Amino acid sequence: MDLKLLLEFSPRMRYLYRITRSLMGDDPSHGWPHIERVIIWSNRIVNAEGLDVDPELLLASILLHDIGRVLGDEKEHHAVKSAKIGELLLEKLEYHRSFTEDCKKVILAHSYTLNVKPETLEAKVLSDADKLDAMGAIGIARVFHTGALNARSFEDSVSHLKTKILNLRELLYFNYSRNVATSLENKIRVFMEWWAEESVF
Ligand SMILES: [Fe+2]
Ligand SMILES: [Fe+2]
Predict the structure, then answer these.
(1) In CATH, what is the architecture of 134-201?
(2) Residue ranges for the chain with pLDDT beneath 50
């Protein structure tokens, strides 16, 4: 399966892809580059596990899952905002009500901090793909990049890797994801060893 093939067959999915690409922006950590990586991870998970997912539901959920990071009320959790904004966009595109409700559930379940359990295959795939993109060399880059945007110290970013990122593997649903996560975790551990070696000043 290649989720992006849908863009050739579905005009409204192509429209959703274009609108989310323009709204998400270039932030390499949480913007459009992240969405593109989550699409790639999702394709890998679905193909490796041979999952019978609804590709349209999965792609729409991926495209919309972090839209609440760039739009909406600051105080609300970004996944809640993403679900609300996603609902409006999908309604405008005249998606069926049940499709929109399913998509909202997938979006709400992607973030472990909201504590909504993924119930469907699509929700589990997005949840895993999103977490895999937080790991490995890209995960390290994302932590330091986000840290810089929030004036966080290097030490706090290293601590974030240890206390948050190295715990993500426990939250994964598929064997493929857990296997890949092991090698991505090892990269973070090597980086932390290098860090410890240099932290003698
Ligand atoms: Fe998110
Ligand atoms: Fe995300």
Answers:
(1) Up-down Bundle (1.20)
(2) none
